[in-house]
Write a structure and sequence with these properties.
- The chain has 282 residues and is an alpha+beta fold.
- 45% of the residues lie in helices and 13% in strands.
- The strands form three sheets. A five-stranded mixed β-sheet has the order 4-6-7-9-10. A three-stranded antiparallel β-sheet has the order 1-3-2. A two-stranded antiparallel sheet has the order 5-8.
- It is elongated and about 60 Å long.
């Protein structure tokens, strides 16, 4: 029995996330009438037809934004899952993060779960730029000097002070010309899997990194999140602070049917998703 109340039944976005999770994990469909019953159970009172209509419109918008292979079909009255989540566990993982955030749980610590999201984001960014991408910082042994000299071929200046740790940098992606020279597309990305992602949009400081590496052309800033930003004005505002926004819609488009370079990622995510769902669903 799938019993999981909608975490925020007054939010269109959260309710739409819940619908995606519900139909995806169970590989089933859901009608507008059934959604109304679930909303009433979650909030203790009946939801308006207008609210349910808004949720349905949000889901229809997402279906279009997920690209040519969306995870579900939707018509006026019914939404149906069309993706097997075990073949796309990165999608289900993003839904879990979007609804539950990234707290410490009995399933895994927030740090461990956050690393899973970094690995998902790494595959998505690499696919997007059709280039290379690596996860920076713990638990990897590489440092910025090695990356600058051996991968980016940019002029290295000095190592960041140890108390700065990774300075909120999670991924380094680049599109090489294949000639081992500087002056190329380089993307520095921060990943934020938790519900507090809005507090992190200004954390990654490219000016600081350009002191450590003297790049021939400007660094590009990116921000990866498991949620969906549907509102165009909000997307512009977030991008102003965070750089290129890589939300769940874009992660899905870049990873669906993608053969991951990280060979163990899918199996790791399947285990984590099953354990996480078992904890939040009774």
């Amino acid at each position: 029995m799938f019993t999981y109340n909608i975490p925020n039944p007054n939010s269109i976005s959260s309710t739409a996330d819940w619908v995606e999770l519900y139909i995806t994990y169970q590989n089933c469909g859901l009608s507008r009438t059934q959604l109304g019953s679930f909303l009433e159970s979650s909030k203790g009172k009946e939801s308006s037809d207008d609210f349910i209509k808004d949720v349905w419109n949000e889901l229809d918008y997402r279906r279009k934004m997920y690209g040519i292979r969306p995870p579900f079909d939707i018509d006026y009255n019914y939404i149906q899952c069309i993706v097997e989540w075990q073949k796309a566990p990165e999608y289900l993982a993003c839904l879990i993060f979007s609804l539950e955030g990234n707290p410490n749980t009995t399933v895994s610590s927030a740090a461990v779960a956050g690393k899973y999201f970094e690995r998902i984001s790494n595959e998505a960014v690499k696919s997007y730029i059709k280039g290379n991408s690596i996860i920076y910082g713990f638990p990897n042994d590489q440092n910025i000097e090695e990356i600058s000299n051996n991968f980016l071929f940019e002029k290295f200046n000095y190592i960041p002070p140890t108390y700065r740790k990774d300075r909120n940098l999670d991924l380094i992606a680049w599109k090489s010309w294949g000639d081992n020279r500087a002056s190329q597309l380089i993307l520095f990305v921060q990943c934020a899997a938790g519900n507090n992602w809005k507090t992190k949009t200004k954390e990654l400081n490219l000016r600081a990194w350009e002191k450590y590496i003297h790049v021939a052309s400007k660094l590009i800033k990116g921000f990866s999140i498991p949620i969906v930003i549907s509102n165009s004005e909000e997307l512009h505002e977030v991008s102003t602070d965070a750089g290129i926004v890589i939300d769940r819609l874009r992660i899905y488009r870049e990873t669906i049917n993608l053969v991951f370079d990280d060979l163990s990622l899918k199996s790791d995510l399947i285990t984590w998703c099953n354990n996480s769902i078992s904890e939040i669903v009774s």
